[in-house]
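S.,

Sequence below, as promised.
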Amino acid sequence: MNVALEILKELHLELDSIKKALFHLQNSYTNCKSIGLKEEYNENELEKWEAFTSRYSRVSDIVTQKIVSTIMLIETGSRGSLIDKTNFVEKNNLVEDGEDFRKLRLLRNYIAHEYTKQSTNEIFELVLTNYGSLNSFAVKLVDYCTNNPYYKI
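The prediction came back faster than expected:
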């Protein structure tokens, strides 16, 4: 099969994946917003917060590492580095400022790699605060691909 067609199919799978992941992330956001930040959490509340941070990381991975990489592969022939991706999303008006894109990726890394070293509430607060940026970026990516005839198969 044609390589370009395989890449487009990969993109469509990623777009389906992000739509489902965004639905679950929204549910977690709603749950955690109603719980709020506290000094102590019961087991149920802690599970909901941990699900939220995990879902945030997953959505961040899908959009920054998979979807943007695949779009760049289609449009530029390369998946690109983080700096390349940052420049690409800024140039294509998917973010107002490229630094916003970098922050999404850096927060994901912070959650994944520094979790045990940091205050739980610090991480919860960062994810809660940055949820809107991640959600907005993911929706713009889906719209970018859905409304672009170049990505139809």
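The radius of gyration is 16 Å.

Coffee later?
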